[in-house]
Write a structure and sequence with these properties.
- By secondary structure, the protein is α/β, with parallel strands linked by helices.
- The protein has 2 domains: 213 residues, Rossmann fold (3-Layer(aba) Sandwich); 60 residues, Alpha-Beta Plaits, CATH 3.30.70.
- Strands 3-4-5-2-6-1-7-8-9 form a 9-stranded mixed β-sheet, sandwiched between helices.
- A hairpin with a 2-residue loop joins strand 4 and strand 5.
Amino acid sequence: MSQIVVLSGKGGTGKTSIVLGLATVMPSKILADCDVDAADLHLIAKPQAIFTQDFVSGELARIEAAECTQCFLCQSRCRFEAITMEPRILAEHCEGCGLCAFICPVGAIKMEPRHCGWLYESRTRFGAMVHAMLKPGAENSGRLVTTVRRRANELAVQEGCAHVLVDGSPGIGCPVIASLTGADLALLVAEPTVSALHDLRRVHELARHFRIPCLVLVNKADLSSERLREIRDFCSENGLRLVSEIPYDSVFTKAQLAGQSVVEFDPQRQKPRFEAIWDLMRETLEKTALVHL
């Protein structure tokens, strides 16, 4: 089983559209949406959940009103201003550090597990999909990403699927590291804009740190010939294979509005393109596997 993660150095490059295009042509795969802070793969995939699990991470303080003597020691010591003068815990401010419970003279403050979101296992027209949703402002998205990937891998083994296709988070932060660690291949999606080379360079450095083979795809490639040339040069200098240069096309937006992948919406033009991309990705996976033998 191979794990393929699609990444970008920033948001808005069309990463999810690329994932959906690949999902339409790839055989025997499990989808995993690891962009848990701003999940959007489900908007087109339209998953039907067959299993839901609460995601609990960290702790949240709770004040037992009947036991509280209103000494306000907790309120005066909380550096996050998470306790009001009632007193009451402001969940959106509480960091779960436990200081208030530690210093409360009558033990009126309890630390409880914090419910941060939900994990879903679903069925889609592209196959099985594992995804998640965080509550607004909830943290520990890196841990939730790891949970999503672990469940997707388990499901791939159970169903005998050859691949896990991961829609990763943009950037290079904790959720991206959790998406990338242990993957067999990273497809880096870039666009020819002013910040493009910087964004591509930093996500490539991250993947290289984990020794993960990378391919590059340029989306909206005709926006700037100069920036495109810079990306080509960067790929050449770093031994990165450029698998496709997709020009700007309003068909991507039209497909989204229709609730379809771009391959479903325009199969005559887009299916051969994404099949060619997948062939190059599969070729890289096979070469990598031979190296590790």
